[in-house]
Specification:
Length: about 300
């Protein structure tokens, strides 16, 4: 029982990393590149496609997954350490099941609106706030039934030019489940001039990694390794044959490697490859009762991410 509680606690901590980095990606995407452009307004676009190769489910059958995502951001930089930004995005998760009697779901859409504010109080302390609203549901499901919200807030302290660290808290709504409350952590550690470790978003995935080790080989080339705990819950269509109006869930731990090429300042193309571990699919009825839960084998994936900042 103690071991199980420890695992649950660690998953909550990892979820905090994910939420913080997923939304801090807004700030990183909209923030000016290093060496930076003039203060004021900037815009950005990020889009990509990731293909998860076919994997087997323990209960029989298999599935593959093709993910598409696009985000647009608008930011205003008051000064180097004070900014606000707004991001809107759309994503599509196209599942393809085979060898099963009934397909639990097909196309899962998500719409998201997020804001990021970072405000320096002095040379060391900064505050951040990240509210967001997201819709996650099977194509055809009622939009009102797919909405959830989240808020992350906290502070960071600049110990030196190489290390910034800060605590925060998060609350995240869940479809047909209790909201989650947990601590989060902001980390930006420049281990060497080229090697860094942080909770900022890399090119690894459209949803943003939990923790990223980054190596800047040159002005053009960046290599990254990232890991995160990912949990996606979504509303099912009322005409779904397995659980009409119910809830689907896909959870896993993706470990990702990426190679990013800076085409020119503010624009980059990333190639990614990796594998998801500890995968599980779950289907619930509208009341949250479990109808089916299936573990699945490690699933390899690969894709491309394009970022443009203007």
């Amino acid at each position: 029982m103690k071991y199980h509680s420890f695992i649950v606690m660690m998953k909550h901590w990892l979820s905090g990393f994910i939420l913080l980095t997923a939304f801090s990606a807004i700030a990183e995407t909209n923030a000016p590149p290093r060496g930076g452009p003039p203060l004021g307004w900037s815009t950005s676009v990020r889009g990509g496609s990731v293909y998860n190769f076919e994997t087997d489910m323990d209960g029989g059958g298999n599935f593959s997954l093709h993910r598409y995502s696009v985000d647009a951001g608008l930011a205003y930089l008051f000064k180097a350490d004070r900014m606000i930004s707004l991001s809107v995005g759309y994503g599509l998760d196209d599942y393809d099941f085979s060898g099963v009697e009934r397909q639990p779901w097909n196309n899962i859409e998500n719409y998201r609106v997020s804001s990021f504010t970072r405000w320096a109080l002095d040379e060391e302390w900064s505050l951040f706030a990240i509210p967001s609203v997201r819709s996650y549901g099977e194509k055809g499901s009622s939009f009102d039934d797919t909405l959830t919200g989240a808020f992350i807030g906290g502070a960071s302290y600049k110990f030196s030019d190489r290390l910034t660290l800060g605590p925060g808290f998060a609350v995240a709504g869940q479809i047909e489940d209790d909201a989650r409350y947990f601590p989060v952590l902001l980390l930006d550690w420049k281990i060497t001039e080229r090697l860094s470790l942080g909770t900022g978003s890399g090119g690894a995935s459209s949803s943003g990694p939990g923790l990223t080790l980054s190596y800047t080989a040159s002005k053009q080339w960046i290599y990254e390794l990232s890991a995160r705990y990912e949990r996606r819950r979504f509303r099912l269509d009322k005409n779904n044959r397995f659980a009409p109006g119910g809830v689907g869930e896909d959870r896993n731990i993706p470990i990702t490697g990426s190679i990013t090429y800076q085409l020119y300042p503010g624009t980059s193309l990333s190639g990614i490859i990796g594998s998801s571990f500890g995968g599980r699919l779950r289907v619930e009825d509208r009341s949250g009762n479990k109808l089916r839960s299936e573990d699945y084998d490690p699933a390899a994936f690969a894709g491309l991410i394009l970022k443009i900042r203007m």
